[in-house]
Amino acid sequence: xxxxxxxxxxxxxxRGVLLARAYLSRVAEPPAAALAxxxxxxxxxxxxxRVRRGAVPEKVARQTExxxxxxxxxxxxxxxxxxxxxxxxxxDSGWPRWPFAAFALTGDPDLxxxxxxxxxxxARLAELSERAVAVVGARAATGYGVHxxxxxxxxxxxxxxxxxxxxxxxxxxxAHRGALAAGGPTVAVLACGIxxxxxxxHAALLHRIGESGLVVTEYPPTAVPARHRFLVRNRLLAGMAxxxxxxxxxxxxxxxxxxxxxxxLGRLVMAVxxxxxxxxxxxxxxxxxxxxxxxxxxxxxLEAVGRLGIDLAAEPDRPVQPTDGLDPVQVRVHDALPARxxxxxxxxxxxxxLPIEVVxxxxxxxxxxxxxxxxxxxxxxxxxxxxxxx
Amino acid sequence: xxxxxxxxxxxxxxRGVLLARAYLSRVAEPPAAALAxxxxxxxxxxxxxRVRRGAVPEKVARQTExxxxxxxxxxxxxxxxxxxxxxxxxxDSGWPRWPFAAFALTGDPDLxxxxxxxxxxxARLAELSERAVAVVGARAATGYGVHxxxxxxxxxxxxxxxxxxxxxxxxxxxAHRGALAAGGPTVAVLACGIxxxxxxxHAALLHRIGESGLVVTEYPPTAVPARHRFLVRNRLLAGMAxxxxxxxxxxxxxxxxxxxxxxxLGRLVMAVxxxxxxxxxxxxxxxxxxxxxxxxxxxxxLEAVGRLGIDLAAEPDRPVQPTDGLDPVQVRVHDALPARxxxxxxxxxxxxxLPIEVVxxxxxxxxxxxxxxxxxxxxxxxxxxxxxxx
Lengths: 390, 390
What we know:
2 copies of one chain form a homodimer.
Chain A: H1 6-11, H2 15-27, H3 33-42, H4 44-53, H5 58-64, H6 73-82, E1 85-88, H7 97-106, E2 117-120, H8 125-128, E3 132-136, H9 143-158, E4 162-165, H10 171-181, E5 186-189, H11 203-212, E6 214-217, H12 227-240, E7 243-246, H13 254-264, E8 268-271, H14 279-289, E9 293-294, H15 298-305, H16 328-336, H17 345-352, H18 356-368, E10 373-375, E11 378-380
Helix pairs in contact in A: 2-4, 2-6, 3-4, 9-10, 9-15, 10-11, 12-13, 16-17, 16-18
């Protein structure tokens, strides 16, 4: 593991603030809208002190009552430091202030901002989230989905766009791997403590992400990945990125929930289509029917989330035909030309239904382009056809 | 071939009108907007007589000059009768008056209405086009596209919706076959004379369509399927149907042109997605990005083109989970429940972050649903779990 640089970021934040935020990150189960608003209001240090005493508004009391007696702030910070992690707090300049401002603006208690983030890795979240796409999808992904997720994530990473995902089996893992393979930054957002490698099969992957990118969670050390935490975590995936891309998702999936969060946060929602015979694409198709942007190439993702006028997707290559550039009259004359058994100009006039004075110049132009051949008063297509006949 | 019934329809139309329309259908290469407007203006019989004499407005003269001396009306009508076909004219009550009214309304000369239609088959076009979907797509379709086209066309036919297509190899053929297999009506619109079976490989298919549905073309007998005629024909496909569905289409395809025509005619455009790795779905994806409706099931097609409030698509089946119907607090308590090693209520309070007075009733409800087990003062998930653990 490369040496982490927690000292740099943490140096700007007083120890008291870190201890207060560490305590607060454990005292309520996220999302805790009332507590977040209270902290915003009175500051982290006073908020922590008043939560401990129980001297808080009723809504905050309900959120903190069960755990307010548990203060493991010192232990948690030490535990994090022990594994090369640190606590990133809103008082830190590395906090993704602007992307996260959307949480409070929604007014939705399910989309409360995190109180602090436990992070591991050399990258700075504020910078990474400036140009980031969340790539999410099904655990039970198909080979098709894994291929596309890996490919698009790689393309994003090559263009210095951060790939944010949830480190799950399937699409998430493929997205992280695609970004890592392209040497780009990637952020894994966990639904458990920073000290846990979940899923276990991705322990090595999480280790690699922590070496070059960032592993992030709002849950304190030792927190287990309970099911509702995956859904709660998804709002952070959506909130860290300018857009959320679903690669494969079933009809009732966490990825669809992430998309809903992204929409509520005013972020762009994109989805990759797939065979309609695949249940793994059904969630993507449903989203597109409801207004999500269909994307089929990384260029289209970048155009949608990228810088205005800079990240425009080039038009895909289209088939070229020898008759390109002909005007409608020339096309009709060309169509009328026999492939074999040359005919005279009167026959062509009847066949094309065009007056002779427009057939004549059209034939001249077709001959110039090598699309018509003139022999002994009669016309036909070239003996060695350069055009694809239907 | 079942006995055609041309006498019934034709009886309503004077022989003079039929002869005039037969002459007009050959005298100009479609689309002939100026001629169509002129015929609309002065009537078919007078229009034909004046075209013959050359006593017509300049634009009409340009469209008819090359062929005005050719009058094969008698021969063409006899030829049609000989193969069990007939000439359907706007003066006939079986003419699809309302669907075709859109042609003139566009004001686009490329979308001029047909002057007459040569038809073969027992069905009445006016009735078939009341509830019809054009199903079109690539010639070089994949197995996926052929499967979907056949499947959706069959579903449309089962629900008494006419399948209109172009009889081409690939998606078109699959659509016709799907409709025929379901015993439903299907209309094939040709880009050549009614006496020709094109493509030759579909001669038997066209024969079957002519027995139960309708084969239709605006081109006079013996007309060859020149390339531009396929594009010109496509407007009729779009115009006969309430909506146009692309199943597979390349980036530069006749099917995309049909979709553009449908849009110009104010009809709905739908497209089936596919793997983004398949060039055969690229045209569909491009259309969806530009606003076409993504459809993945026949029910979605019917909902879009069908009768308001009657043809609503049922929601697709979604996975059901044992925790469905739990409120958020109950979900959190359920998440906190250990699978093994039962814990007391205080532990559950800490783990869930919820006050004891809400944990208690949640546990009671979970036990009632068989999602929690109480043994000797401690709680856990049922020994024989009925929930899918992640």
